[in-house]
Amino acid sequence: MLRTLWWFAYFFGYLIYSLPTIEKVKRLDPSMPVEERDTIIHEKPKHWAKSLVNITGSNIQVIGEEKVPSGPVLFVSNHQGNFDVPILIGFLQKPLGFISKVEVKKIPFIPRWMESMNCVFIDRKDRRKAILSIREGIATLKEGHSLVIFPEGTRSKGNEMGEFKKGGLKLATESRVPVVPVTISGSYNIMEKSKFGFQPANVTVTISDPIYIPSEGKVDGTELGIEIQNRIKEHL
After folding, report:
1. In what order do the strands lie in the sheet with 147-149?
2. pTM to 2 decimals?
3. Residue among 41, 231, 18, 32 at smallest CA distance from 146
4. Residue 185: band (very low, low, confident or very high) from pLDDT cuts 50, 70, 90
């Protein structure tokens, strides 16, 4: 009970405390290299996300991070639970944004930081808006920022993976940035399997070898999706 209450107090308290930083990062020199700029912008979100996970008492092990290429990449991950997002933000070194469902905008304070982190909001109920969001994501990757997508579209709440939605993989086939498959194993035990609040869990994040998209020519999105899914499944 106390752990859960402290978690929610920290969740909103740190967001409020860090709001002035958003205005500061907006004033960063636009000529600054993208990677350097993103590192500065993501410093507080990374601290916040890592602390949220640590408060639950969970142990996070990251395997294979040395495989992540420099420059922008598209992380493609399975989605077991609500803690997947803070785990990836807090425990992976590379600054990254997310393709997020538009409903997240209803959470107080969160959207302001997400916009600074180059997250892209997608409305799955509106096909036209969803297509525009994918195009925004492609442009974000081409500008040099890294993104994460959960192609299942929803939490599996276990080790079974859901079907990959094909539309999101256009982020890779159109931007031509490297694709990095990520396997999250055990995160659903923190919240989804807890009877109340949170419970400590052992979570493993495994990074597979990157998939490099050819700079020219047509890329078969279906085959790419199957390859990514197989690499993720290997570590579940």
Report:
1. 59-63, 202-207, 179-185, 74-77, 147-149, 97-101, 120-122
2. 0.94
3. 41
4. very high
